[in-house]
Amino acid sequence: MLVITRFRVPAAEAEGFRADVLLALDLLGQRPGFEDGHVGRNVDDPDLWVLQTRWESVGTYRRALSSTEIKMRVHPLLYRALDEPSAYEVLEPGTDLNVAEPRSLR
């Protein structure tokens, strides 16, 4: 599972944001199921940043986000996130695509 979260950060706040997002990446990296991650800044629009993480599964990603430490230290950063879908399935040769279907509660 691949998560791409983009942020809009004014230049005057870039250094503080950089420290915060790198801390977020470090904390996420300590959660079970985390595979790797990167922080980047757009070369053409330096106010646009990205936090990219890769997870073993959607379940490990969701459990990581629900941990107390992540809620306390990473969630406050998310107010800067662009309001757009961020979770993607990783497509590899021979894998099936996820099927968007309602789930049974039984």
Automatic annotation (TrEMBL):
rRNA processing listed as a keyword: no
UniProt protein name: Antibiotic biosynthesis monooxygenase
Annotated ranges, domain ABM: 2-71
Species whose genome carries this gene: Nocardioides bruguierae
Gene3D superfamilies assigned to the protein according to its UniProt record, in alphabetical order: 3.30.70.100
Keyword vocabulary terms for this entry: Monooxygenase, Oxidoreductase
Database matches in InterPro entries: ABM_dom, Dimeric_a/b-barrel
Molecular functions (GO terms): monooxygenase activity
Keyword Nucleotide-binding among UniProt keywords: no
